[in-house]
Amino acid sequence: MPIARAYAAQSARVPLTPFSMERREPRAHDVLIDILYCGVCHTDLHHARDEWGVGVFPLVPGHEIVGRVAKAGGAVTRFKVGDAVGVGCLVDSCRDCAPCRQGEEQFCIPGAVGTYGSRERDGAPTQGGYSTHITVDENYVVRIPESLPLDRAAPLLCAGITAYSPLRHYGVKAGDKVAVVGLGGLGHLTVKLAKTMGAEVTVLSTSPSKRDDALALGAAHFAVTSDTDTFTKLAERFDFVLDTVPAAHDYNAYLGLLKVDGTMILIGVPTHPTPLSAFPLVMRRRKLGGSLIGGIRETQEMLDFCAKHDVASDIELIPIQKINEAYERMLKGEVRYRFVIDTASLRAER
């Protein structure tokens, strides 16, 4: 079996350290991928520190994977050796339940198999993209369009589809007024995609220093949420509010920014529950919804859309040896706007 170099958390709340593991030889429908880049998602940190209580250790995070096919199983039809490909948050699902049959594997009723922190059908733990290579069924692999830079495409495999799917599902269209709460790795792609779809975008942030970035990314307006007057000035302004923030905050205040029949969509996941009042919803017939990444078919659609419209992530490329520092900087909001690991640094490590 191929031996992969990686970085792993050996237990919760300890630094990631070098790790070696076996990847399976490609089965009939598998491809073995040489990983070139892997994005660093806030979910990686949640899992590495077991903040959701579902940790499987040792844990190799990483579900924003871009690389090239190194070997293909005998029955593979979708890819060939050398193809630029990506792997997002899922590597398998039951394939038979209603969501799977509809191409929405993320909602697999028995439970989809996550790229890391999950278990294969045979019970083996899955390990992610902070590694030199990975073996994945071709049905859970997507093609990276030629026009997308591979390093800047990596965050699209999670942050990109997490932003794109609700914009499509909830029907955001040209002329809609859209507020994006938070301007981090997920928020900056939400701004870019909503703008590209023709929406008038306002960024709502606790950080006044992000104003210039927000406008450069395509936002028409910017407001600071630490100023309590913001919620009065912007009351009943928006058709949609997309909330990307993974920290606890008051949903009720943001619901008040919606017009009658407006929709607030949660795509950030705070660690602790947030109290919710019925009044902001019932008084204006507002809706509160959520969205979870996207299926494989929609992820490919998103990549093709991004290639067509020249949308990619703003990144800081790092060596794997700086991953623990990157986690701390991510918590402080000190990245513009997504860390991406260059796995050449992992191959070079001795």
Structural overview:
This protein has 350 residues and is an alpha/beta fold. It has 2 domains: 3-158 and 312-348, Quinone Oxidoreductase, Chain A, domain 1 (Alpha-Beta Complex); 160-290, Rossmann fold, CATH 3.40.50.720. The chain is built from 12 helices and 17 strands. The strands form 4 sheets. Strands 3, 4, 5, 8, 9, 16 and 17 form a 7-stranded mixed beta sheet that branches. A 6-stranded parallel beta sheet has the order 12-11-10-13-14-15, with helices on one face. Strand 10 (177-181), helix 5 (185-196) and strand 11 form a beta-alpha-beta unit. The chain is globular and about 60 Å long. It starts with a strand and ends with a helix.
Give a quick summary of the entry.
25% of the residues lie in helices and 26% in strands. It is an alpha/beta fold and 350 residues long. It has two domains: 193 residues, Alpha-Beta Complex (Quinone Oxidoreductase, Chain A, domain 1), CATH 3.90.180; 131 residues, NAD(P)-binding Rossmann-like Domain (Rossmann fold), CATH 3.40.50.
Topology summary:
Elements: E1 3-8, E2 17-22, E3 30-39, H1 42-48, E4 65-72, E5 84-87, E6 90-92, H2 98-101, E7 113-114, E8 133-137, E9 142-143, H3 150-153, H4 159-169, E10 177-181, H5 185-196, E11 200-205, H6 211-217, E12 221-224, H7 229-233, E13 238-243, H8 251-255, E14 258-266, H9 279-282, E15 287-290, H10 296-309, E16 315-319, H11 323-331, E17 338-342, H12 344-348
Parallel strand pairs: 10-11, 10-13, 11-12, 13-14, 14-15, 16-17
Antiparallel strand pairs: 1-2, 3-4, 3-8, 3-17, 4-5, 5-9, 6-7
Helix pairs in contact: 4-5, 4-10
